TrEMBL record:
One of its GO terms (molecular function) is mannosyltransferase activity. Gene3D superfamilies: Glycogen Phosphorylase B, Tetratricopeptide repeat domain. It comes from Methylophilales bacterium MBRS-H7. It comes from the Bacteria. This is Uncharacterized protein. InterPro entries: O-mannosyl-transferase_TMTC (IPR052346), TPR-like_helical_dom_sf (IPR011990), TPR_rpt (IPR019734). Coiled coil: none annotated.
Amino acid sequence: MNLQKILHEASVLFQQGNFQAAEVSLRKVLRKNPTHTEALTNLAVVNINLNKTDSALELFKKSLNILYKDQTFKMYIQTLSQLKKWDIVIEDVQQFNKKNDEWGLLQLAIAYRENGDLEKSIKTFDEIIESSSQNIDTYISYGFTLNKYEKYDLAISVYKMGLSIDPENFILNYNLGITYANINQTKQSVEQLEKSSKLNSNNFNLWITLASQYAKLRKKDLAFNAINECKRIDPNNTLIQFQEATINMNLGKIDDAEVTLKEILKKEPENVETNYHLGLIKLMKNEFENVMPYYRYRTKREKKFGKFDDFSLPNLDPSKKILISWEQGVGDQFLYLRLIDEFTQIYKDVTYIATDKTEDAIKGLYPKIKVIGMTEYSSNIPQYENYQKINLATIINYIPKLKEKLNKNNNLEGLDFKNKLIGISWRSDNKKIGSEKSIDLMQFEKLFKYKFDFVSLQYGEVENEIKQFNLRTSNKLDVEKELDYFNDIKGLLKLISKCDLVITISNITVHLAGSLGVPTILLCPKSQGKLWYWYGEKNYSQFYPSVQILRQEKDRCWKKEFETIDDYLKLKNKLQ
């Protein structure tokens, strides 16, 4: 039997797509010589094409154990990676990659990443780079890893290292632009994406991202030019319509956005992001009875909201126990809890799972419901097995005529400044829209000429900012030095409760002040950065009757709104 002739016949059959006949020929060779590594490797490749992946993996490994070959090793590891068998990738790279060559180490770093072991992944990537790697794939994969785990500053450094080797590499330039977008450095993102577009003008994802970044910079014409490039590349892609809709949402054109999103659903009824954004629009319009068929898709997003799977909007039995889980940000939790009194009028036996950080504060605000922290729940899951389970925002689905029941406004005109204490908050750390909501502390300076005491309600690293501010004002902004503003929500509530008035942007402060019923002025951005619960034309919050909303008239300009506050404080100052 001429084994080489049979191997050649098998190769021809494989190239012709006759995989079963190729398999028969290769098995003839292996019956004659069971350790023929070329036949073992080729049969593994054939089995992959026959969807016999388990057999293929066994054949690859048998071949490697007889005689290590780089090509066989790479095909084996690539197959394992495609099957997402990361534990085996880690084990076998360590077994066969004795020389620690760069390709093997790169696969090991990727496997650690996909297995959730970021520390080992970073350590392996660093080991490769320290060997003066010139392999661009290493920098691309390392940057992607850091992006995935939201280590954006490190990702930027890695991409720049790669670009120092290959400045014209499209993927490195594009991924760097995406990273800048992730940390809301929009100008840098646009600059990098525009450079990428000159390297490759036919990348759909580039143009769709560039459209959103132009929109953030209020460059509407350029945004729609980028959309037109998307239409040139892939005219039937529904992401085009979705991006048009989100741009219109940011421009405040809610009706136009709604029409476009509904058009997408005609083609893709289960499109998660489209349904979710339609839910947001229904919330913006206070169409609460129509919210949940769309907003329930928040539980299916890549970064889903909610601990429980309540997508089906289950029928709740008022006579049985109900377990409600927190979801979304801290402020959102306090907002949705404003509906809990209405909910418990129908459903009496409710237990709420709070984050450990908010547990004590929520217990104080809502003594009628049982509140437990996540740690307590995680330690006693079987105890709640028979409870009906929903996520917090889903309670909207179970309160009839919600719009009619929301609180009406409580005017600030009769406010009596007993303590002469005003609390202020000016910054949001939200990675996506924080910069759109935040206001430079220096813009509050003119308010400090009045004879009130001012206290900071701002969480985060603001010590230097306050120090510089106080150098410019005779009336100082005080700080409660013993208070952990970020973690001690109960302590922050106590401080807010002492204030006669709170002046704040849209962050956790407004939700805490509103929950306490403390008179509050909310500085609300015109469009971008405005959350669904601040929409509408009225000057008060329907969720928080003590919150008056000052709506920005001119985009990115707070001059008129601060003049309004100044007039208000001037009047109150005269009455003291």
